[in-house]
Amino acid sequence: MTSTDFKTPSKYANDVNQAIDDDSDGLRRLSLQIHGRPELGYEEVFAHKTLTDYMEEKGFKVTRHAFGIDTAFVAEYESSATSAAIATGQKVKSIGFCSEYDALPGIGHACGHNLIAISGVAAALGVKAGLEKHNLPGRVRLVGTPAEETTGGKIPLIEKGAFDGLEACMMTHPSPADIVYTTILSVGGIQVEYFGKASHASASPWEGVNALDAMVTAYNGIGLLRQQMPPTSRVHSIVTHGGQAANIIPDYAAGKILYRATSFADHAKLRDQVLKIVNAAAESSGCTVKVTEEMNYKPVPHNELLAARYAGYTTDLGVKYIPRAMQEAAPSGSTDMGNVAHYLPGIHPVFNIANLESIIDTSVSNHSIEFTELAKTDIAHRATLRSAKGLALTGMDVLAEPGFAKAVRDDFEARVPNAGKESVSSLQQKLSAFGVVTSGGCGCH
């Protein structure tokens, strides 16, 4: 079987799928434990311990608090055939998966990160079993990535080398639908602070410089911008501070703005437009402004070969996909997995936890209390394992099929020239031109 002549089922399917099924009860307990103890980004102490203990019990070499991040981890397995392969000069490949496990404030695991956590675990266990059963050289790495809902824990992990040496890295995400080719948007987030001058709002309003006026002007300007935006882009904002009292001209006001797009070019254009509005509001009101970039998630460029394999294997397992054009048109959010998929080949499919018949459930959405409840059901668990099997079998092809890893890399390089480094450099230069301060901050999927 070559990379261009793909036929299911995989010759590794029985062993990989059986290994995941055999561990179903343990994975279910792991999922419910994490679901029952929701933790916010970079505070996932319980999830970190629970997951790392589990992976260590399963024979993985575990690095806790990896790369100086308290709630990140790396769990790696190297097959027994690897040493002999290296001794003969053979290149040994490595495949990666991601687990997320942070929750949302107030509504817990309303994005199902307890399921993402065990999907990565299950995929890694499946590949481990495939390598062992078939005496194949190879490595599998599970990267525990905190804070996807807040600051984007994958971003510092990329910078620190957590994904180096991998042929590809994949993850999967719960949803009310089964979609491989979901259009995952970029998202940029900024905090805007306006500084004016306080005065008595009745006795001497002319002595003041109204910071809230600047914030309101920016908010309204962004609203007017929506008329000219492509239908694939998004922008949303809130006022986080509007003054201390109604009889005081506010000398300080602040807000947060998120902007999203389907391509890096549209993302950069929209960011520039937002920053111009923010700065114009300051100038027109007489205020000064401070803009802090809090996040920058890239869109996810799906690797065509990895996506096709995953789709084929999950179809074999009973998933029924709607046509690709309809998948790409489905509403979506954003994820720091986009940054990973700009660094090395990757995919980020979503799987239906509302039912196992691939019926899209429009009555429920991510980031809702209803989704929190769905994320702990038996159906959600079974759907998670089915998706994890698709990831594991795709990962086995990367490790074991001659020519496939190279073809995957070629597709990546064609879609993401220079691993996205030029676009990042361009972004940083433009942010500096607008006087934007960069920091870690808030984001969302």
Walk me through what this model shows.
The chain is an alpha/beta fold. The chain has two domains: 13-184 and 300-420, 3-Layer(aba) Sandwich (Aminopeptidase), CATH 3.40.630.10; 186-297, Alpha-Beta Plaits (2-Layer Sandwich). It has helices at 13-22, 24-36, 45-57, 82-87, 113-133, 154-160, 211-225, 264-285, 304-316, 324-329, 337-341, 369-374, 378-400, 404-415, 421-433; strands spanning 61-64, 73-78, 94-99, 139-144, 168-170, 173-175, 186-195, 234-241, 252-261, 288-297, 346-347, 350-352, 436-438. A six-stranded mixed β-sheet has the order 1-2-4-3-5-11. Strand 3, helix 5 (113-133) and strand 4 form a beta-alpha-beta unit. Helix 1 (13-22) packs antiparallel against helix 13, helix 2 runs antiparallel to helix 5 and helix 9 (304-316) packs across helix 13. The longest helix is centred in the last third of the chain and has 23 residues, at 378-400. The protein is elongated, with a radius of gyration of 23 Å. Residues 437-445 have low confidence and may be disordered. This is Peptidase M20 domain-containing protein 2. Residues 189-283 form the Peptidase M20 dimerisation domain. Belongs to the peptidase M20A family. GO terms for molecular function: dipeptidase activity. InterPro entries: Amidohydrolase (IPR017439), Bact_exopeptidase_dim_dom (IPR036264), Peptidase_M20 (IPR002933), Peptidase_M20/M20A_hydrolases (IPR052030), Peptidase_M20_dimer (IPR011650), Xaa-Arg_dipeptidase (IPR017144).
Keywords:
6-stranded mixed beta sheet; 5-stranded mixed beta sheet; Aminopeptidase; 17% strand; alpha/beta; 15 helices; 13 strands; 445 residues; 42% helix; dipeptidase activity; disordered C terminus
